[in-house]
Amino acid sequence: MKPLCFLLCSVFFASTSYAQVKAGTIVRPRVVETKDEVEYYEVEVTTNQKSYLNLLKGTWNFTSMRRQPRVEAESLTNASLTINGDSTFSGSTGCNTISGKFTLKGTGIRFGNLTSTKMACNNMDQETAFLKLIQQTISNYSVTNDSLLLRDVTGNIVFHAKKN
C-alpha cells in the first residue's frame, strides 16, 4: 500500500502546482530523484490588502450610535468625523472637537491617539460613550454610496454616518 500511495502522490505533485501556505510562505513539495522522499522548500510570498482610503476620505456626519448590540440606536446630532489621506482624523462629538490617528488594514479600522477639548455640555453621557466606542469598540467598517457603517469586532453596527 505504501509504494502505491507514494507513486500516486509523486504523480500528483509532479502533474499539478499543489502548494501549502504556512505563515505567509508557500511550501511546494518536489520529488527527489531517489523516488523515496519528498523535499520541501520555502518561497517568500507578499500580499497587498486593497486600500479603501479613497472611499473613506471626507467628512461624515453621524446619524446614530448603538452603545450595545441589540439596543435601539440613539440619534446623534452635530457629531462628525473628517478622515484625511494622511491617516489622521478630526471631528466633533456634538460639543467638543476631537482629533487623532487611524490605521486601516483592508476593511479593518482602528482609531487611536485621540485628543479632545474639555468643554462642559448638556449631554456629557452621550459624548463619553461616543469617545469610548470610537477608541475601544470600532474594529471595521463598510462604505456604501454615501453611507458609512462603523462596526465592532463581531460585525454589529455601532455608528451610522452619512457623507457630507
Automatic annotation (TrEMBL):
Organism field: Paraflavisolibacter caeni
Protein name stated in the entry: META domain-containing protein
Alphabetical UniProt keywords: Signal
Domain DUF306: 55-155
Pfam families: META (PF03724)
Lineage: Bacteria, Pseudomonadati, Bacteroidota, Chitinophagia, Chitinophagales
Signal sequence range: 1-19
